[in-house]
Amino acid sequence: MTQQGAALQTYNNELVKCIEELCSKREDLNRLIQQEEAEKARLQHDIRVLTEKLSRVNESLARRLSARSDFDRTIAETEAAYMKILESSQTLLNVLKKETGNLTKATEPRSNKDH
């Protein structure tokens, strides 16, 4: 019986040792889980902050793109109107030169050859 008692004590010691090892491994794993949960929370916070920032940038970008489009339209309209003014100025200049030429001829003293 003593031999059986000794064997039982040996098994008991080994069982306790195995249970302690399992508990130690569980504690290590639990620390890793807590670290990863903390990292997950930080990442989720960062994502939330970056999502809000991205939304603000997208809104600002949309306003600026719209403003640039307004500038492009205004510039195009102004350039077209300016071209019309240039064309009108050229036409007016041509008419003025022609009329000046006609007036000059009309006001020049007639030469003796014309008689």
From TrEMBL:
Keyword annotations from UniProtKB, A to Z: Coiled coil
Coiled coil: 19-60
One GO-annotated biological process of the protein: axon extension
InterPro entries: SSNA1_fam
Keyword Coiled coil: yes
One annotated Gene Ontology cellular component of this protein: ciliary basal body
Keyword check for Coiled coil: yes
PANTHER family (alphabetical): MICROTUBULE NUCLEATION FACTOR SSNA1, SJOEGREN SYNDROME NUCLEAR AUTOANTIGEN 1
Protein known as: Sjoegren syndrome nuclear autoantigen 1
